[in-house]
Protein: Aldo/keto reductase
Organism: Macrolepiota fuliginosa MF-IS2
Amino acid sequence: MQTVRLGKSGLKVSKIILGTMQYGDPRWQPWVIGDEEEVTRHIKTAYDAGIQTFDTANVCHDWLPGFGKCS
């Protein structure tokens, strides 16, 4: 996976970033994936493919199952 520098910070992040808005509690939005095993598979698959940057902004929801289990 290619990396790029994040702004002027010198921090390198994967060129592709996985947003996590679609993971959480489906009561928030019906399209949200709430199954912990499925979320874990998605995140692990992305990581195994070289994605090392995940957008976990908490402005949409505050429940991200499985994220810690992938590390």
Observations:
- The longest strand covers residues 3-5.
- The mean pLDDT is 83.
- Residues 7 and 13 are 10 Å apart (CA to CA).
- DSSP finds one helix and four strands in the chain.
